[in-house]
């Protein structure tokens, strides 16, 4: 007789008949072995510190990630640095535009960018102001007597650089423009040394402008991608600057709130006959309001009747 486990349809202890006439005794299924009672949990003799860095006692080192660099593998804990994750409050930045020429008829744009922008291409190189006596003499003759310049014209005699040099030379000399032809040539003779010095000064400013432009182009080609990636990682986006204060001398001012970090104040200012462009770097420090002034001297590009 063969003993088998009882199927669900048969009762325990009954006898089943096979097809070949043999009799089979039905027995109960094997019972699973009883589970052993759980062992007692060991109790630590000393309390565990609440500090996560001290939470492991007599155990393996905490899991750390590794960064491959030129100096080998550096272990960095996976803990979140809560101090660096805090967002610092924005800082007020005052932006002033000091370009008094044609201040009543202008088109301006200004914004703060967390990364530099592609610089405008220069349409032409500005010629240097003349410093020779004969050229300065003719310019003084045309400016002081023959073709007096009205301040509202877009293209003055000799360009706006010469107009600035002449005005400063006139103030330094203490002379007044002649009203009679007999006083014109003595006036020109007295004005030539002052005008030459002012022309040299303005030429030096333009030389520095060209150097700053070339340096900005080189920095842009080398660092723009990295700086833009870092700004995107930090969630920094461009912020528009609106001029809200307008002063009688033509100066206008706007206020913008920026997160601490590196910014670039990018602005354009168009007047009849002239176009200015600025891209001034600005380091915003936490809790320290900043101020930046955009004028003709620090403009990166000036095009037109300059």
Give the amount of beta strand, in percent: 25-35%
- Count of individual helical segments: 4
Low-confidence stretches: 1-19, 26-30, 37-86
The amount of helix comes to: 25-40%
The value of Rg in angstroms is 42 Å
Strand order of the largest sheet: 8-7-11-12-14
Q: Architecture of the domain at 91-114 and 234-304, according to CATH? A: Sandwich
Structural classification: alpha+beta
Summarize model confidence as the mean pLDDT.
Answer: 75
What quaternary form is this?
single chain
Report how far the terminal alpha carbons are from each other: 119 Å
In CATH terms, the superfamily of the domain at 91-114 and 234-304 is Immunoglobulins
